[in-house]
Design brief:
By secondary structure, the chain is mainly α. It is 68% helix and 4% strand. The chain is built from 4 helices and 2 strands. The protein has a two-stranded antiparallel ribbon. Strand 1 and strand 2 form a beta hairpin.
């Protein structure tokens, strides 16, 4: 089956305590069909989980998709939430390039 992310089950490798969460999000995504509200929420939740897993690049990709989806669906509040998360991710990515404080 093919979902919004491509083939169902595609995505970053799962590690730690998050595989079940990702599996549930994929299942919800499959059931959502073309419901932009549900898909936006799934992308947002997946991005937050990826960020918590220490995968900011993958989280950024999901959030960019979320914001585009919510904007095209006319959901300004959802798009704003996505942009806020995107800012958090960008800050995390910026910190990756900085040397650790001693």
């Amino acid at each position: 089956m093919v979902g919004r992310r491509g083939p169902v089950g595609a995505g970053p490798p799962l590690a730690g305590e998050y595989p079940e969460a990702h599996e549930l999000l994929t299942a919800v995504e499959e059931l959502a069909g073309d419901d932009a509200t549900v898909l936006g929420a799934v992308l947002h939740a997946r991005a937050k989980a990826l960020l918590d897993q220490g995968l900011p690049h993958e989280a950024r990709a999901e959030t960019v998709r979320e914001v585009a989806l919510r904007e095209s669906a006319g959901d300004p509040d959802g798009a704003a939430a996505g942009r806020e998360l995107l800012g958090r991710i960008e800050r995390t990515l910026g910190e990756e390039g900085r040397p650790a404080a001693v």
